[in-house]
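Posting here for the record, re: pyridoxal-5'-phosphate.
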Amino acid sequence: MQKIYLDNAATTPIRQEVIDEMVKVMQSEFGNPSSTHSIGRSSKAVIETSRKTIARYLHCNAQEIVFTSSATEATNWILRSAVKDFGVKRIITSRVEHHATLYTILALQDEFGIQVEYLNVDCDGVLDYPRLEKLLSEDVKTIVSLMHVNNETGVINDINRIGALCHQAKALFHCDTVQSIGKTELDLQQLPVDFVVASAHKFHGPKGIGFAFVRKNLVLQPMIFGGEQEKGWRAGTESVHQIAGMAKALELSYEHLTEERAFISNLKTYCFGQLKAAFPAVEVNGAATFYNILNVLLPFSPEKTAMILFNLDMKGIAVSRGSACQSGSIKPSHVLAEMLTEEALAKPSLRISFSHYNTNEEIDYFVETLKGI
Ligand code: PLP
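Prediction output follows.
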């Protein structure tokens, strides 16, 4: 059966060049990067070259990039360290962040009794910036943790505006850039941000590897103790092939960004046009969304709602649930629950997310299949 993958916000297929690079590194660079002999030094050189490649595309210093196993790990580490080591007493976030952020904050609140303020979003997913400004006018040692692009709706936060407010108030700013790194230009030298996190598998790289950007002069404490790897901040023998694969994936993403972004934007426009033709009452969840994510509310009856993902899966189509109620036991999406009315939440929302590997024909098949449900 033909398989159609329209779930690229969840993860992306690895580019062949990235696989080739990783195989090459696994074959030729088996040394322990901490060993002082030439075989170890050669592995270490792969890591440092990768770090420089990543830093070059994000316009920061290589020393500001710290490799981790995932963005989840990076976020846990940064937020925990902010509370434990920087004396942060308050975290400002929003209810539509990824669970990597939300559950870390809940754990920190439980352990350290810190104050947590949640910003609301409106029905378009737009953040309450005036409240952020108001909160930041209070004299409390704060870290703000707000994402760049929402992984469910694709809504884009104005991180320049958030960063400027944080800078003015001398608050730290941690930004989850998992959905935007490799998909849009980011100049970390200019952007008023202290920490960002990324995950290779979102930009056609391998799983189990990510990184944190930690602004120069901010000294974090380790979350994992052991050897001196990653300045002693993240002990454990480095995964040389994954680091090399991530750097290759980021390099290819940025080298092909202009044409791939144009291609993917067209796919999204085409997909919504086809959906609108088939289901005139279809609506988009979120305003001003990122070019690779389309979250739609479908005007389906409750009976159809229950089985929609299952039926698509049976036809080989992979998309993500956007809202509740497509299966009685699944909890509603915490993101859409903040944006939609009860009535809208009861209808099926789907997150369709694209990559340059998708085609218009796949979208035709997807829409035809939806029509048949
Ligand atoms: N933040 C966002 C916005 C994400 O979409 C994801 C992945 O789903 C994560 C964080 C977690 O990333 P990782 O898979 O590296 O743990």
